[in-house]
Structure formats: structure tokens, C-alpha cells
Design goal:
The chain has 243 residues and is α/β, with parallel strands linked by helices. Helices cover 48% and strands 16% of the residues. The chain is globular.
């Protein structure tokens, strides 16, 4: 039976994707903060879907522990979903170097180190699937969230590089770029409901992309056109837009 490892197993998108894989008969390993919490989430997932599910603690920021974490997995994964993310207040992060460092390390350094472990094993095996949740925020630096956006830009580049490295080995890398998603990360913001996708919608789009192939997924799909327009604006104009 194939196994999916979810890095950030407590996230809304991670949980939604995990449930869809589970309903297809996959074994699921949920990895995230808190052993008891991950175990409880895995037990609930198994109860809803009938799948075999495990919960295991993971500290994304403790890169020294990642090798031991990877070796200790209850079974070897055929697919890895990286749904780790942190969207903090940029105004606060601009004033607090420690908070800025945490934001950058959570969104890039930690996930990058973990996906290297997955890439090395998958490359040796000659098969595997890596799904990375990046963001449309990484397509261009914006004054309102350039710290988060720069980390996600780096993560997008990492996934692109892994794809170029691994495709000859039969390993697939899918980059997912959601727009605004109705999750606890943006619960503090007042936004039009029509602008927000649900985690379920993002998960459905991911499963379609897994089935049909492809390298980069914008979800919902209309974000591709929106971000094309954002990217082609001359810098002198873009700097004058309050976004």
C-alpha cells in the first residue's frame, strides 16, 4: 500500500489533501507540532476513512533533528506533501528580527531541508512524488508581505530545481500556488468571501493535478491570469500600487 507523508499535517490544506489520499486507500503519516495532537488527528482520519494513519511529531525549525525524524518514519513514503507555512504580521516582523527569522525559516529553511531528505531517497529508489505548497505571494515581492513572499519565492525556486534534478529519476515534483485560502493563517484579515478558496477546493485541485500530470498548479485556476498581470507590470508602476 502506498504511503503519503504530510509535513505540516495539522494545517488545513494538509489535512484536506491527506483525507483525499486516504479515501483512495493510501496509508497516511501526519507530521507536525505536538505528538499527542498528531496522534489524535491520525486517529480521527483513520476513523473517517478507514485508512491506516500514523501521527508523528516534527519540529520544522530544528533542522538537526530532521535526519532522525526521516529515519524513524513508521513506513517509507511514496509521496510527500509539504504543507508547512507561517504567515505572521509583517509589520511586527519588520521590528523584530527574531520573528522575521522564524517566518523565513518556517517557510523556507525547514521545508527545504526536509524535502532534500525526501529527494535523496526518491532519487535512489527511482520513483516518488513531491508536492510543495508555495504561494502566489512568491511570484512578485509586494510591499505588504515581502518577507513571507520572499520565502515562498525561494521555496518555488527550490521546487523548480528539484524538478530539474529529479525528472530523469522518475520522481515528479508538483508546485502548488494557492491564492487566498480560508484558513486560520488569514483569520485576522477582513476579506471578501468570493476571494477566498476553501481548503477543500485547493485539495480537489491538487488531486486533479496529481492525476493529470503537470508541474505548476495555480488554485483557483484564475490566479494564473492574475499573477501574469502582476508579473508583467513595470517596476516603476508596480511600486506605486498599494498591495
Amino acid at each position: 500500500m502506498a504511503t503519503l507523508l504530510v509535513l505540516g499535517g495539522g494545517s488545513a490544506i494538509g489535512a484536506a489533501v491527506a483525507e483525499r489520499f486516504a479515501r483512495r486507500g493510501w496509508t497516511v503519516i501526519l507530521a507536525g507540532r505536538g505528538k499527542e495532537r498528531m496522534t489524535a488527528l491520525a486517529r480521527a482520519l483513520s476513523g473517517r476513512t478507514g485508512c491506516t494513519a500514523f501521527g508523528t511529531p516534527l519540529d520544522v525549525l530544528d533542522t538537526d533533528s530532521h535526519a532522525a525524524f526521516w529515519k524513524s518514519l513508521p513506513c517509507r513514503p511514496e509521496a510527500v506533501l509539504c504543507a508547512v507555512g507561517l504567515l505572521s504580521d509583517q509589520q511586527a516582523a519588520r521590528r523584530d528580527a527574531a520573528q522575521a527569522d522564524r517566518l523565513l525559516r518556517t517557510n523556507f529553511n525547514g521545508p527545504a531541508a526536509l524535502l532534500e531528505l525526501a529527494a535523496n531517497e526518491f532519487e535512489q529508489r527511482g520513483s516518488g512524488l513531491i508536492i510543495g505548497i508555495s504561494s502566489v505571494a512568491g511570484d512578485r515581492g509586494r510591499g505588504s508581505n515581502y518577507l513571507y513572499g520572499s520565502a515562498k519565492a525561494g521555496f518555488t525556486a527550490l521546487l523548480s530545481g528539484l524538478r530539474a534534478r529529479l525528472w530523469r529519476s522518475g520522481v515528479r515534483v508538483l508546485t502548488v500556488k494557492p491564492g487566498l485560502v480560508d484558513t486560520p493563517m488569514i483569520a485576522h484579515r477582513t476579506l471578501p468571501r468570493w476571494l477566498l478558496a476553501t481548503p477543500a477546493k485547493v485539495a480537489d485541485d491538487i488531486m486533479k493535478a496529481v492525476d493529470r500530470g503537470g508541474d505548476i498548479l495555480y488554485t483557483p485556476h484564475w490566479w494564473r491570469a492574475v499573477m501574469w498581470g502582476v508579473r508583467i507590470l513595470p517596476e516603476c508602476w508596480f511600486c506605486r500600487i498599494n498591495v
